[in-house]
Amino acid sequence: MSQQDRLVIFDTTMRDGEQSPGASMTKDEKVRIGKALERMRVDVIEAGFAAASPGDFASIQAVADAVRESTICSLARAVDRDIEHAAEALKRAERARIHTFIATSPIHMKYKLRMEPDAVVEQAVYAIKKARNYVDDVEFSCEDAGRSDIDFLCRIIEAAINAGAKTINIPDTVGYAIPDEFGRTIRTLLDRIPNADKAIFSVHCHNDLGLAVANSLAAVTNGARQVECTINGLGERAGNAALEELVMATRTRTDLFNISTGIDATQIVPTSRLVSSITGFPVQPNKAIVGANAFAHESGIHQDGVLKHRETYEIMKAEDVGWGANKMVMGKHSGRAAFRSRLTELGVTFATDAALNDAFARFKELADKKHEIFDEDLQALASEAITDSVEDVYRLVSLESHSATGEVPAAELVVAKSGVEHRSKSEGGGPVDAALKAIEAVACSGANLLLYSVNAITQGTDAQGEVTVRLEKGGRIVNGSGADTDIIVASAKAYIHALNLLESGSSRQHPQNDGV
Ligand code: KIV
Ligand code: ZN
């Protein structure tokens, strides 16, 4: 197969995905997602925006240290400071890419940048040359390309390639494009730009009109050879193109695309679950490929057909994307060394022996309640052990809940607030409502509850329930998560996690703010 037949998969779950309100990830969480993406054999991992905050910077460094097979990338506006930060954060990466961008649409240049088109070209060229002083692999994006003038795009891209950009990204930043039109744009750029053959053309589509995947595929049909995407389609506003959909569409319809990715598709479902659990963004049941119903055949006619001959109704095999692959990895009798080694494979490391011992004790408790422990259970347990830090303001000490037919549900619990234990009791519409009210009576946070959701982590009635609680306060949104075989306890843990995130608020700069 020629070079042209390879589609580069660029994952931006940890950068654009993290721009979803409330989806911020800690350094350790990013390392775990990075390891999962590496196992999936993603080509390029955009691990963050180094200049956004010291936390983003440290996360990119940590991902670059832990992930050696994929290229690690940092976003940078076309300004000195951003490029210097990106280069520094990527210093130890085995393979590093700096992704610099500037807006090219008339509306962005006039109102956001307040720059003339000539100055925008000059700034882009300057930034690319500067980035090339640090790394060979430089990507340049024309922000809001979907609404940019085609002549201007040709001009700035030609200059960008001459300045040393190896990948040219055409983002539909506001999700405005329509597939035919977007495909034509890519074809025109490839036909008209004289040095287009010196770079790989990439697309980065947002989903505001629900067309991110369709637009990306139209671009691939017309010559794009990199797609930027996220797990579960996470991302700013309505999200980005979903990695799993792009990979499976090109794979299922090779007859049309005649292209291959290097992706190990069996890692798709486990990675989807990991991202959902870390960010607290549940996956809708009817979501393509990774939704719980994606391979469920409800109707009798369909079931009959599938039993007789699977291809009657199935275009993909569930096991090919990792469904049913969750294997029992551990049980009650597994030892500390096996526990540590499996977690290391999953990208989870513990800073101290005490932290490892604490996580192992939680594992033993879980193994008493649940015979079979799957990777998903270990991931949930690790999230909890890692997020449960000593600096936390709130900690759940104990919880008792009561519900019986004909009686008002009630909860009584002890919560430690800054080390001081408080007992609290409340009634509610149900036991979860009662428990959260009892916690709020101690915290008095006044936060608005935006979302409460429960998902079973694995199958069976002894599965752990994973609860997400999204809280908003003063414009800040956080997602707390908690897992337990008792969903009242999981709910209390999730609420407390969200309260701790609100307390710990660190600020980050948004990459698409004017940086020039
Ligand atoms: O949507 C967008 O334009 C982006 C760029 C920074 C690539 O995220
Ligand atoms: Zn974007």
TrEMBL record:
What Gene3D superfamilies does the record point to?
Answer: 1.10.238.260, 3.30.160.270, Aldolase class I
* Alphabetized CDD domains for the sequence: DRE_TIM_IPMS (cd07940)
Q: Does the keyword Cytoplasm apply?
A: yes
Provide the residue positions that the database annotates as binding Mn(2+).
Answer: D16, H204, H206, N240
Molecular function (GO) terms for this protein are: 2-isopropylmalate synthase activity; acetyl-CoA C-acetyltransferase activity; manganese ion binding
Q: Could you mention a single GO BP entry for this protein?
A: L-leucine biosynthetic process
Q: Which reaction does it catalyse?
A: 3-methyl-2-oxobutanoate + acetyl-CoA + H2O = (2S)-2-isopropylmalate + CoA + H(+)
User: Where in this chain does the record put each Pyruvate carboxyltransferase domain?
Assistant: 7-269
Which pathway, metabolic or otherwise, does it act in?
Answer: Amino-acid biosynthesis; L-leucine biosynthesis; L-leucine from 3-methyl-2-oxobutanoate: step 1/4
> What superkingdom heads the lineage?
Bacteria
Cofactor(s) needed for function: Mn(2+)
Record keyword Nucleotide-binding present: no
Q: What class of enzyme is it?
A: transferase
EC numbers: 2.3.3.13
Instruction: One GO cellular component term, please give it.
Output: cytosol
Which InterPro entries would you find in this protein's record?
A: 2-IPM_HCS-like (IPR050073), 2-isopropylmalate_synth_dimer (IPR013709), AIPM/Hcit_synth_CS (IPR002034), Aldolase_TIM (IPR013785), LeuA/HCS_post-cat (IPR054691), LeuA_allosteric_dom_sf (IPR036230), LeuA_bact_synth (IPR005671), PYR_CT (IPR000891)
Coiled-coil region: none
Where are the stretches annotated Regulatory domain? 395-516
- Subunit structure, per the record? Homodimer.
Role played:
Catalyzes the condensation of the acetyl group of acetyl-CoA with 3-methyl-2-oxobutanoate (2-ketoisovalerate) to form 3-carboxy-3-hydroxy-4-methylpentanoate (2-isopropylmalate).
Protein family: Belongs to the alpha-IPM synthase/homocitrate synthase family. LeuA type 1 subfamily.
Q: What is this protein called?
A: 2-isopropylmalate synthase
> Gene for this protein?
leuA
